């Protein structure tokens, strides 16, 4: 009963500050919708830099031939900054075209360089550009789905917003509210679990509203509303559990917000939110196993496959197990901190 009493008091307190409540509620909802919307519009693309050592006609002819290929972007490149431009991701490949129909392909990926070499040889032989469509199709099959990318960004966002909301417990300790609560027979763990439950329930409401809005928009992310709701529920469990751990680990709200931002970003980088797991170096693949983001993305992938099996359920148990462990550790830290 003590846990639900704390949860109720948190709810009552939130309604006293209506502007803050609306802002706290709308920001995560807006972030979820934007994350899903933006990721649904992301398609594989190849940026090609062209250095034309001729009169300019060679470049224009090649560009005209590739205009019909969706996802292929052709631009003039600076010969003096080829390597820098490719390292920064401005171009995936740079092609130097000469008057005598010879060419030089520069690329950081040797396999991709071989493919482009073959495409250019065929172009100067037959006058047709063939092969880029196959590369783009393979890139799409190898990349993460819109739902997986969106799920990763949603988790990153909700970890930060959940931590900011969970900072109430730090504020209560500083203002003496928590001390007055502990004078009664209640233990610190009751207060910790009560605030965790409130944070979890408010996050679920945000997810439900987000899914409701998304279902009315013409956005196809590869999962239906019920599947998206299940994914959101899992993400809510993770975000509220990790935020509970962070606030019970930190002494100030500033510390909690900084740590939440850093942890969320590192988890996203290592867990596959920005770079697909199958493209990571072997060492990082092993390290990613320790991030809960990886298991969330794997779970989303299994949901999209639509096959219920042991492989589908395994990520759920790992996610729930890690979440429970974080809450238990948070309670232990809180008992020492608030005692």
From TrEMBL:
| Compartment(s) of residence | Membrane
Where's the ABC-2 type transporter transmembrane domain? 21-329
Which Gene Ontology cellular component terms are annotated?
membrane
Q: What UniProt keywords are attached to this protein's entry? A: Membrane, Transmembrane, Transmembrane helix
- What is the organism of origin for this protein? Clostridium manihotivorum
State which residue ranges cross the membrane. 21-42, 150-170, 190-216, 228-249, 256-275, 314-333
Q: What is the protein's name according to its record?
A: ABC-2 type transporter transmembrane domain-containing protein
Recite the lineage of the species: Bacteria, Bacillati, Bacillota, Clostridia, Eubacteriales
Question: How does this chain sit within the bilayer?
Answer: Multi-pass membrane protein
Presence of the UniProt keyword Transmembrane helix in the record: yes
Q: Does the keyword Amino-acid biosynthesis apply?
A: no
Pfam families, A to Z: ABC2_membrane_3
For molecular function, the Gene Ontology terms on record are: ABC-type transporter activity
Q: Where mainly located? A: membrane
Its domain of life? Answer: Bacteria
């Amino acid at each position: 009963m003590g846990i639900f009493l704390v949860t109720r008091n948190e709810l009552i307190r939130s309604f006293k500050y209506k502007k803050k409540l609306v802002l706290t509620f709308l920001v995560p909802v807006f972030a979820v919708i934007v994350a899903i919307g933006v990721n649904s519009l992301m398609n594989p693309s190849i940026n090609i830099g062209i250095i034309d050592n001729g009169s300019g006609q060679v470049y224009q002819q090649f560009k005209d031939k590739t205009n019909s290929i969706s996802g292929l972007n052709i631009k003039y490149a600076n010969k003096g900054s080829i390597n820098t431009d490719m390292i920064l991701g401005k171009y995936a490949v740079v092609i130097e075209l000469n008057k005598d129909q010879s060419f030089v392909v520069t690329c950081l990926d040797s396999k991709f360089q071989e493919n482009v070499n073959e495409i250019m040889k065929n172009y100067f032989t037959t006058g047709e550009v063939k092969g880029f469509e196959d590369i783009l199709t393979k890139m799409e099959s190898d990349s993460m789905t819109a739902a997986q990318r969106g799920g990763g960004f949603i988790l990153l966002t909700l970890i930060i917003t959940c931590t900011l909301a969970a900072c109430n417990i730090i504020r209560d300790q500083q203002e003496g509210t928590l001390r007055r609560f502990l004078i009664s027979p209640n233990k610190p763990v009751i207060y910790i679990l009560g605030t965790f439950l409130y944070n979890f329930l408010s996050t679920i409401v945000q997810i439900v509203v987000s899914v409701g809005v998304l279902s009315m928009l013409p956005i196809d992310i590869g999962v239906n509303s019920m599947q998206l709701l299940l994914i959101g529920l899992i993400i809510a469990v993770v975000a509220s559990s990790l935020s509970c751990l962070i606030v019970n680990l930190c002494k100030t709200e500033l510390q909690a917000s900084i740590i939440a931002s850093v942890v969320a970003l590192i988890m996203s980088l290592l867990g596959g939110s920005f770079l697909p797991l199958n493209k990571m170096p072997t060492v990082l693949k092993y390290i990613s196993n320790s991030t809960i983001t990886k298991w969330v993305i794997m779970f989303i992938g299994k949901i999209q496959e639509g096959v219920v099996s042991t492989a589908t359920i395994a990520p759920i148990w790992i996610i729930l197990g890690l979440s429970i462990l974080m809450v238990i550790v948070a309670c232990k830290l809180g008992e020492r901190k608030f005692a």
